[in-house]
Amino acid sequence: MDKERYNRQILLPELGEEGQEKLSRARVLLVGVGGLGSPIALYLTGAGVGTLGLMDDDVVSLNNLQRQVLYSESEIGESKALCAARRLRALNSDIVIKPYPMRLTPENAHEIMQEYDLVVDGCDNFATRFLINDTCAQLGIPYVYGAICGLEGQVAVFLHRAGSHATYRTLHPDKEATLQMPLPSKAVLGVTPGIVGCTEASEVIKLICGYGQPLIDQLWTIDLHTMQTLVIDL
């Protein structure tokens, strides 16, 4: 562990050297390295999460750059997972970055996710979230959920431990009806996924280090029109 690199967070009584060691041993899979995934990946890498998996089958496009701050104009047309891995390795060579330039599917979910301690949500569709949720339930690992629309966002922690009851299906109990819903608008302010993604990264670090009150069985929401936030028991 490079104490100089992590000095400022080691100074926090909530973390200390013990918390930093926990981070260095943690294995986190990020599904989706776009608007939400960019801040999640950057801050987990900066914090020193030992192994970070990056899963995304998309390529960088010009209209991503307004919010997907991992990427540059020179990378347009290239794999997001591979570009993100290159950028994150340049930020922190202490940790292991494992890119998966592919979509999470029922065929590969169990094999890949079983290598990780928890999964964090950077995706943008219902089907993938149901798949993450159900595979996490099978594997007994936590799922840090986040979603955005326009100037609004939400975060929750599902399946954290024995006795934790809320899952993604608590929010959307009827999978078939949910999958048939119209797609949400693609309109989004660039800072919305920044704020929500940073909140997800914070929840991941809290779970790994064991401090504070993670959003277990709770849904946190924010409205950037008014900066009103709510925490709702699920």
Write the layout of secondary structure elements.
Blueprint lengths: L6 H4 L5 H10 L1 E5 L5 H11 L3 E5 L24 H12 L4 E5 L8 H5 L4 E4 L4 H14 L3 E7 L2 E7 L9 H4 L3 H5 L11 H19 L8 E6 L4 E6 L1
Parallel strand pairs: 1-2, 1-4, 2-3, 4-5
Antiparallel strand pairs: 5-6, 6-7, 7-8
Write a brief caption for the model.
This protein is an alpha/beta fold and 234 residues long.
CATH topology: Rossmann fold
CATH architectural group: 3-Layer(aba) Sandwich
Question: What is the overall number of helices?
Answer: 9
Q: Output the radius of gyration.
A: 17 Å
- Strand runs, count: 8
- What is the global morphology? globular
Describe this structure in words.
By secondary structure, this protein is an alpha/beta fold. It has one domain (7-233): Rossmann fold (3-Layer(aba) Sandwich), CATH 3.40.50.720. The protein is 36% helix and 19% strand. It is built from nine helices and eight strands. It has helices spanning 7-10, 16-25, 37-47, 80-91, 109-113, 126-139, 168-171, 175-179, 191-209; strands at 27-31, 51-55, 96-100, 118-121, 143-149, 152-158, 218-223, 228-233. An eight-stranded mixed sheet has the order 3-2-1-4-5-6-7-8, sandwiched between helices. α4 (80-91) links the parallel β2 (51-55) and β3. α3 packs parallel to α4 and α3 runs parallel beside α9. It is globular and about 50 Å long.
